[in-house]
Design a protein that fits this description.
Layout (H helix, E strand, L loop, with lengths): L3 H5 L9 H31 L32 H8 L6 H9 L5 E3 L4 H17 L5 E4 L18 H15 L4 E5 L12 H21 L3 E6 L8 H10 L2 H4 L2 E4 L7 H15 L5 E5 L34 E5 L19 H7 L2
Parallel strand pairs: 1-2, 2-3, 3-4, 4-5, 5-6, 6-7
Helix pairs in contact: 3-4, 5-6, 6-7, 8-10
Length: 354
């Protein structure tokens, strides 16, 4: 710091030669150009860098390590819809791409049959074959009463009593085998059509299903469906999950099932739901089957054009709290607009591979 005498001394104005002024100006111009060049290079490099994993929801929330070892392999059913179509149409010009990019990938088996014996038999066959290959099958329980509020994917068992018998058969099919169970897509996110009593019945039905699976299929991992980041707020979803017994019987939540949202957005949403639940032992699985291009601008959910396959199924997520990326929705199956819900559409499947 200068002393008082120095601050009181009048400044001496010095004259600068024209040559020196031009020299200083030139130096300043060079410095500006160099700075702009560095900024441009930095910005360009950032376009090619691998994106960081989505940030955790907060340092105060402990999250568990992914449940599955990174070497875990999921089961590829040779009778999945894409594989069946390829076998039936071997000379179709689209067959090679659909075989390689869809049919050969692990994807979930959806159990929608209302016949209890058929459900039990089918599951027993799936888990038996998968177990022999030391792979995890992914099974979707999709038979809740008033499924999808009688919309495009309507159906399900007639009443709660029948659903309990159905889930008993589902559980017997698994028995002591290992399996990933996705419990009733949309059942908690889509309750707008239900009256108060019916909501209570749905919570009770889901709680019963998870409890039976926990007790009678001890090696099954049960993930309650929790909608997606563009549907219900995390707090609302957490409250519904509590009513459905996740804190007592569940192993985690599934997000983005049959939707197209970006993986990063779904990871953030899933972890925020876990934060609201205050259950750090729970994990998240993300459906990446059709989210390679992200959602459309208006977030259309029914067979939108321009979508792509997402990251192949893997347990190597590299993210605490995220157990796996799975193909829950079978790519190529319609949502109800390109064809009836669940119908395999080769044209749509082929476009997903592009």
């Amino acid at each position: 710091m200068r002393d008082r005498a120095d601050r009181a001394r009048p400044a001496v104005r010095r004259r600068t030669s024209p040559w020196l002024s031009r020299s200083i100006a030139a130096q300043l111009l060079v410095m500006v150009l160099v700075a702009e060049a560095v900024m441009a290079v930095t910005a360009t490099r950032s376009l090619f860098l691998t994106p960081r994993p989505p940030a955790a929801v907060g340092p105060s929330l402990p999250v568990s390590k992914p449940f599955f070892p990174v070497t875990t392999r999921f089961y590829t059913d040779p009778h999945n819809p894409a594989a069946q179509w390829v076998r039936d149409h071997p000379r179709d010009r689209r067959a090679a791409a659909i075989r390689k990019h869809i049919a050969a990938q692990p994807q979930a088996a959806w159990l929608t049959e209302t016949n209890e014996s058929l459900v039990e038999e089918r599951i027993r066959g799936l888990v038996g074959t998968a177990g022999a290959q030391r792979r995890w099958p992914v099974l979707v329980a999709y038979a809740i009463p008033q499924r999808d509020c009688e919309q495009l994917s309507s159906g399900g068992i007639g009443d709660v009593a029948a659903y309990r018998r159905w889930i008993d058969a589902f559980t017997r099919g698994i028995g002591g085998a290992q399996a990933v169970v996705i419990l009733e897509p949309d059942a908690l996110a889509h309750m707008s059509c239900l009256k108060r009593r019916q909501r209570a019945e749905r919570f009770a039905a889901l709680s019963y299903a998870a409890r039976v699976l926990e007790r009678r299929a001890p090696r099954a991992r049960v993930y309650y469906d929790a909608g997606n980041s563009g549907w219900q707020p995390a707090r609302t979803m957490a409250e519904r999950l509590r009513h459905a017994g996740i804190d007592r019987y569940g192993d985690g939540i599934a997000v983005n099932v049959s939707n197209f949202n970006a993986t990063g957005d779904e990871v953030r949403y899933g972890l925020s739901v876990l934060r609201e639940l205050r259950r750090p032992r729970l994990g998240v699985v993300v459906d990446t089957s059709r989210n390679g291009a992200g959602p459309t601008r208006n977030h259309r959910f029914c067979d939108p054009l321009g979508r792509k396959l997402g990251r192949p199924p893997t347990a190597a997520t590299g993210m605490p709290g995220v157990d796996a990326f799975l193909w829950v929705k079978q790519p190529g199956q319609a949502d109800g607009c390109a064809a009836g819900a669940g119908v395999f559409v080769p044209r749509y499947a082929y476009r997903l591979t592009g």
